[in-house]
Amino acid sequence: MSEQLERVKTLIVGSGPAGYTAAIYAARADLKPVLYTGMEPGGQLTTTTEVDNFPGYPEGIDGPTMMMQLQQQAERFGTEVRIGMITAVDLSDEVGGIHKVTVDDSKIVEAETVIISTGASAKYLNIPSEQRLRGGGVSACAVCDGFFYKGQEVAIVGGGDTAAEEASYLANICKKVTMLIRKDEMRASKAMQHRVNSLENIEVRYNTEVDEVIGDQVVEGLRMVNNQTGEKEEIAITGLFIAIGHKPNTDIFKGQLEMDETGYLITQPKSTKTSKPGVFASGDAQDKIYRQAITAAGTGCMAALDAERYLATVESKETLVS
Ligand code: NDP
């Protein structure tokens, strides 16, 4: 490994709405942020076609354009956006300590503060017909894409709180929602189960899995299979929502930052502070409940403000000591 060292005030990891919003605020506060984009520049929104629920876009905007504009806005105030993947971190335990971040297994950047906005990735079933129709009627976000299926028949896979919440959301918009649950019971909380069961246009199918998504360019139907009897059945649908969980992109922080059992970073209440001083977490990497672009952007702003305050405290201590 080459020993190229560079010191920055604020290093931002990730380029979704959280990362770019943190960058806008950090740059305007003169923290001279350097942002590494990660593997998927622009984050999850670049896989969405139309974003209709981000305030300020009355006609909606497509995900990739929105992310490009956020990047331009961050760069306008002096953020240095770099293509690169953070492959390892060595985070300091000391207030005022320096965090070492390895980029692409080769370069080490030293940072006074680190803002983590690495996001999360939706899990998919990973069957060929589902992968082929992603963006053509297969979606992992009902709140983002449900509107396009107004008055139509759709299906949703999953039995957790997200699936139950999204099924209820879809039931308000769509004519009928078929919910596929692989076990003979729903994992969702009792309250969410009650909500699902109280909605007449949700049909819950237990012990049921996706056999194949039917359609050439767009979803036209679904072949389901009962995993107890092996019996198959086809239904006509135009949208298939996958709600089988998300995986936060936090593996590189394992053993260094506190996280819950599923890998979501734990932040102090009403703050983006992680378990290490000078390290802040924003967006989906620390949020398993809301997971919206606007909430990610909000926590990105909080992380930049927290970093600015932290640096001011550290600098004033250094002044007192010297
Ligand atoms: P969960 O992991 O809780 O649930 C995932 C669901 O998907 C389970 O029913 C699981 O089935 C099913 N599943 C997983 N893999 C497959 C597969 N390959 N094929 C078919 N089904 C599959 O994820 P959620 O996103 O629902 O929730 C994550 C966390 O966030 C939870 O702690 C939840 O409580 C929380 N949350 C809270 C909310 C709230 O409080 N309002 C809202 C949303 C989430 P099985 O049960 O068989 O494993």
Tell me about the largest β-sheet: 7 strands, mixed
- For the termini, the CA-CA separation is 36 Å
Count of distinct strands: 19
Q: How many helices?
A: 7
The CATH level-2 architecture of the largest domain is identified as 3-Layer(bba) Sandwich
Q: Classify the helix fraction into a percent range.
A: 25-40%
- Ions, cofactors and other bound molecules: NADPH dihydro-nicotinamide-adenine-dinucleotide phosphate
* CATH fold category name of the largest domain: FAD/NAD(P)-binding domain
Question: Which value, in Å, is the CA radius of gyration?
Answer: 22 Å
GO molecular function, one term: thioredoxin-disulfide reductase (NADPH) activity
Keywords: Disulfide bond, FAD, Flavoprotein, NADP, Oxidoreductase, Redox-active center
Protein name: Thioredoxin reductase
Subunit structure: Homodimer.
Structure, described:
- With 322 residues, the chain is α/β, with parallel strands linked by helices.
- It has 2 domains: 6-121 and 246-321, 3-Layer(bba) Sandwich (FAD/NAD(P)-binding domain); 124-242, FAD/NAD(P)-binding domain (3-Layer(bba) Sandwich), CATH 3.50.50.60.
- It has 7 helices and 19 strands.
- It has helices at 17-28, 63-76, 128-132, 142-145, 161-173, 190-198, 293-321, and strands spanning 5-13, 34-36, 50-51, 61-62, 80-82, 86-90, 99-103, 107-116, 120-122, 138-139, 153-157, 176-180, 202-205, 208-214, 221-226, 232-236, 239-242, 246-248, 279-281.
- The strands form 5 sheets. Strands 1, 2, 5, 6, 7, 8 and 19 form a 7-stranded mixed beta sheet that branches. A 5-stranded parallel beta sheet has the order 10-17-11-12-13, covered by helices on one side. A 3-stranded antiparallel beta sheet has the order 14-15-16.
- Strand 1 (5-13), helix 1 (17-28) and strand 2 form a beta-alpha-beta unit.
- The radius of gyration is 22 Å and the shape is elongated.
- The two termini are 36 Å apart.
- The model has no long low-confidence stretch (mean pLDDT 94).
- NADPH dihydro-nicotinamide-adenine-dinucleotide phosphate (NDP) binds next to helix 5.
- Keywords: Disulfide bond, FAD, Flavoprotein, NADP, Oxidoreductase, Redox-active center.
- Belongs to the class-II pyridine nucleotide-disulfide oxidoreductase family.
